[in-house]
Write a sequence for this structure.
């Protein structure tokens, strides 16, 4: 049976800045995927430039991108699933302030369908539909986000200044 | 006392191996899936370093993973930037033409003469500008995604510090 390990190591509020900042950036990055076609559909040239920003990490083939009614998204369905999954996991980890580190076998398990679909596409075999590809990539992104959240929280915890123990009656001295 | 393992070896192995893969035209399509090659580069470097750390009896934490992933990502950037630039300057403009087409179709208000001028400059510079731009882009992407891969690897392959055992504990002070 695959075992999940939950850490009870929370981070002091002051050192939650870095995980919070990374989560905010991830949310902005994911929002930009939808924002780019929305801007283009409203006649803004910014949509095109925003789309270029995602170019190094995605082929952006229009047929393989999800369309929410105002044109193909800035990245393909698979990348959209990975981004959304990762952002959701980071939001969840940061909000709970407790890292959750799944067993590495889970990572391999959720990565397998995406790897197989990618390989099938590369060798010319029929590939999954856009929404299925999105759904298959979502758990992989979520799992990667959980590990990323765990890493960020642990790094923040290790680098946070040790809290001074409270001495009873210290405040009243003076 | 044991010495902490060097980060350079795993970063070099991973950076060079993935950098070469990232420069090969068909293989580098893997990067189309969220820069998977670069994330894989940082992840693999973290795996190698965690193995070395475990063997040496040292702790391996996500921070170590991030550092070794960053170094591996930068090495990836240099290797794939130089090799990829050389390949694209031999085989043609490649990606740059696609970028120009995308700018033109995006509706951005850029003078076509300016775009023509840039394209002409890129072609007349004999590929050097393409190589430099390629290295710069690969370095930036390598640093960002290599660190992400290293952080994920650091969490997956975490090695907790070993508690002191009787064998390696310091001898007790003489009594009397």
């Amino acid at each position: 049976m695959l075992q999940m390990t939950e850490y009870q190591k929370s981070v002091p509020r002051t050192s939650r800045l870095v995980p919070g900042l990374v989560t905010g950036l991830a949310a902005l990055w994911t929002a930009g995927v939808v924002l780019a076609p929305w801007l283009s559909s409203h006649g803004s040239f910014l949509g095109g430039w925003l789309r270029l920003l995602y170019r190094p990490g995605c082929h952006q083939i229009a047929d393989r991108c999800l369309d929410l009614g105002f044109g193909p998204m800035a990245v393909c369905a698979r990348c959209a699933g990975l981004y959304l999954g990762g952002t959701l996991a980071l939001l969840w980890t940061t909000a709970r302030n407790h890292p959750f580190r799944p067993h590495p076998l889970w990572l391999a398990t959720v990565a397998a369908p995406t790897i197989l679909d990618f390989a099938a596409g590369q060798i010319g075999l029929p590939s999954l539909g856009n929404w299925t590809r999105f759904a298959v990539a979502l758990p992989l992104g979520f799992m990667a986000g959980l590990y990323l959240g765990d890493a960020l929280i642990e790094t923040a915890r290790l680098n946070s200044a040790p809290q001074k123990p409270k001495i009873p009656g210290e405040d009243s001295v003076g | 006392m044991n010495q902490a393992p060097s980060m350079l070896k795993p970063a070099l192995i991973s950076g060079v191996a993935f950098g070469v893969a990232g420069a090969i035209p068909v293989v580098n399509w893997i990067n189309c899936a969220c820069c998977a090659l670069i994330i894989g580069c940082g992840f693999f470097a973290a795996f190698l370093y965690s193995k070395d750390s475990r063997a040496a009896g040292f702790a391996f934490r996500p921070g170590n993973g991030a550092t070794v992933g960053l170094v591996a990502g930068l090495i990836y950037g240099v290797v794939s930037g130089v090799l990829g630039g050389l390949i694209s300057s031999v085989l043609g403009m490649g990606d740059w033409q696609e970028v120009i087409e995308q700018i033109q179709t995006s509706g951005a208000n850029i003078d076509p003469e300016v775009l023509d001028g840039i394209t002409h400059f890129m072609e007349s510079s004999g590929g050097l500008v393409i190589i430099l731009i390629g290295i710069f882009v690969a370095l930036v992407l390598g640093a960002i995604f290599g660190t992400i891969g290293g952080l994920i690897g650091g969490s997956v392959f975490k090695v907790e510090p070993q508690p002191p055992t009787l064998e390696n504990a310091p001898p007790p002070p003489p009594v009397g």
User: Anything to note?
Assistant: Residues 15-155 of chain A form one domain. Confidence is low (pLDDT under 50) at residues 1-8 of chain A. Chain A has five helices and two strands.
